[in-house]
Amino acid sequence: MSDAFMREAARALPLEQPYDYHRTLKKGPVHRLRRAPAARPAQGEMAVPAEGWDVQIHAQAGPLVEFAAADVREYLNTSMQVFVAVERTESLDDWSTRTGVILAGVREDMPGIGDELKGSKDYEIRVTGDQIIVCGYDELGVMHGLFNLEARMSLREGPFLPQDLTTVRHSRYRARMVLSWLGWMQWPDSYLSHLAHDGYDAIFASVYANPNGVPGPPHYDLIRKQDAAKLNDVIQRAKRYGIKVYTPILYANTREPENKVGLREHVRDIVTAFPDIHGYILLTEGFYFEKFFGAGGHGKQDLRDWAQHWTEAVRITAEECHRINPEIEILPWEYNIDFRPQQVELKRHVTSLLPADTIPLLTWENGKAFEIDGLHGYLRDYSISQVGPAEVSEGQIAEAKRREMPVYCKVDCFATWQFGTTPYLPCPQQWQKRYDALAEHGINGTLETWSNGYKPNFIAELRAWSCWTNPIEFDALLRSFARREFGSGSEDLVLKAWDHFSRAIQFVPDTGPSMGTNAAVANPIFFDEPPARIMTLNNSWWDEARKTHWRHRMDPYWPYAHPVVVFTPDFTNRVNRAESYARARSGIGAIESPERLAETAVLPTFNKYLLLAADEFEAGLKLYRKAALSAPEAKRASAMKDVLIVEQMQRMLRSTHAILEFEDLRFRLVKMEDPVEAEPLLDRMATILTAEVERTEAALETSRRDSRLGYECEMDYVYTPYIIGEKLRVLHDILEQQLPAYRERHRQS
Questions:
Q1: What is the pLDDT of residue 548?
Q2: What angle do CA 107, 110, 113 make, to 5 degrees?
Q3: pTM across the whole model
Q4: Which of 338, 361, 403, 633 is the most exposed place for a label (fewest CB within 10 A)?
Q5: In angstroms, rounded to a whole number, what is the distance separating the alpha carbons of residues 631 and 466?
Q6: Could you say which of 107, 131, 164 is where a domain stops?
């Protein structure tokens, strides 16, 4: 069935070049045709007629209301084939008596409505048979209320609304931030508009760079320097869409008094130069004390002492910012302080040290403990296999709430480093559990992407519904998405498929930025040590051990991706890299006792759960493929792409299993002396290679038809069709040359 589907998809989908989707997203329209030809209003629904209605706003309406009104006009015209004009009126006092209108305004201009609205972004919608009223607490509320009308109509695939709809929706979040998926400081207007439509009101622009262009600490000497003029341009354009801008502040803090003076000057320079920056994120990757270390990589350093000095630097930053503008948000993010589950008290202590006028930015799921077959691990990085929050994060939330401080969280909500080269993860039931948990814990703001970045997708739309109170009921909402994406009649197939995918993701033991869920479809299998594909420095006067040398930023055997997502064997055969990988990427090696690890191989359990996840994905894919093949012509191409995304996710898991099993066999093989004993291992290795060739060919065809796949904005493309083709050449060489040669040599020995 999978092969048959791939043949159909290859016929239906055109070939794409890398960055094709980027170009469309940068320059393409925000709205497209959404109206289904057969859609008709159901009983109890009203319909906006094709002509005759107007969008009315106050004559003195602000720029966000103007933008939203013009956007609704464009949406109705393009998406719903309904033609309206935008009219300004001197008064909205008689709003309740007007008919044939979509009337939008702030509560001060509309007496008798909006009394229940409490804060920014809140809105009220009232619908009758002959009028639609949107009242916002402020301009942002009006804008998001009008966008919600668009979202409701898009779900219905027609200009239809319940004729007795009355809803008051309160925003759950003070800010929802994202990064750009397009690339460094790429924030075109169409992209900003997409963000606003999906409920985002803030961007982080850009990571690891001071806004004024001052170089960061030495650890970040490779990061692009910020262009102040470009940043100011982004700030001003983002305002048009109700979007705030947050940036980092980078500084290497030390104990010396002159260092603290330097920090004060640095902060004042930034805040003075950029008066419209809404907030600053003080991430320990770049804003640190004395020396940089990765999460948990502090060695023997006293983290309580480190935190005492780090939070003092946070206090200085907040003090200088608030002297100039008390409204600036300061978000200290202590990511690098050990987040393993046994560190709850340490992390609570760090939160207790933060200045009261700052907002802790916590990492939602990293460090969350889990158990598989009696082995204990924890999430090594951003993942959705566990809902969260992590044990340490839960302790920090409690401490912040005790201190009556608001809490923001870095929390992925539609894509994550677990399958980080996939544009979004279609696991809506699992995502919804996370959205519910965020609401239950009273999180006040979010940074919802890191290196994955935002791109339009239905999971981001689902997330937007959860960010205000009184959403459409979840099951009904999901059914509407299924009908819209795959066509009427396929809803049950799609819902069951999503349920399988949401269960499958919970089995995935590979967590964080790794080869396993990000690059395995393009990661070669190695048997003999291959020739280096870049220059090496084994005998020259250059010091190969210097980790700052450019050579150490790529793997000599596979220099097509960052080493963090490349798996290669230890050709000295001292270490079984497959077993090491399983221990590291599951977090089991950092939690289980050394005694137990000495007698327990983690790899068999790790590989078992990779296949459990892949099999559960396949169970859903059988339904997903069927739904896509029966989709109406207008939806078939996009439905097929939805299927190919999950096909690639499943292949990623099976390829990881193949790479690790093959390496485990290779490691055992080189220690064997009896050629007879080696034969079963060689046979199994040949079987693995044969299956991997077939899988890689399918991965190649898939990546040629969706230029979103393989891309991750921190690294650009982790894999492209070219790289997958290179992998295929390696696989064929091992299967057709290296393995037969090995057999022949050892039969004669």
A1: 56
A2: 70
A3: 0.96
A4: 633
A5: 28
A6: 164
654 within domain boundaries: yes
Give me Rg for the CA atoms of the chain. Answer: 27
What is the pLDDT, as a whole number, of residue 661?
98
Residues 418 and 519 in one domain: no
Buried b (16+ CB within 10 A) or exposed e, 347-380: bbbbbebbbeebbbbbbbbbbbbbebeebbbbbb
Q: Is residue 61 part of a domain?
A: yes
What backbone phi and psi angles, to 5 degrees, belong to 132?
A: -130, 125
- Asked whether residue 584 falls in the same domain as residue 665, the answer is yes
pLDDT digits (tens, 9 = 90+) for 139-148: 999 999 999 9
346 domain-assigned: yes
Residue pLDDT, tens place only, 521-531: 999 999 999 99
**What CATH number does the domain containing 63 carry?**
3.30.379.10
Residue 1 confidence (pLDDT) above 70: no
**344, 345, 397, 402, 403 from 352: Cα distances, Å:** 12, 10, 11, 9, 8
Same domain (yes/no): 307, 439: yes
User: Which single residue is written with the structure tokens 């393993």?
Assistant: 340
CB burial of residue 141 (10 Å; 0-12, 13-18, 19+): buried
Separate counts of helices (H) and strands (E) for the chain: 22, 22
With H, G, I as helix, E, B as strand and everything else as coil, classify residue 405.
Answer: coil
What pLDDT does 559 receive? 93
pLDDT of res. 673: 84
The residue among 164, 189, 223 that closes a domain is 164
Number of domains in the chain: 3
Tell me, yes or no, whether 501 lies in a domain.
no
As a whole number, the mean pLDDT across the chain is: 95
Domain that holds residue 575: 507-748
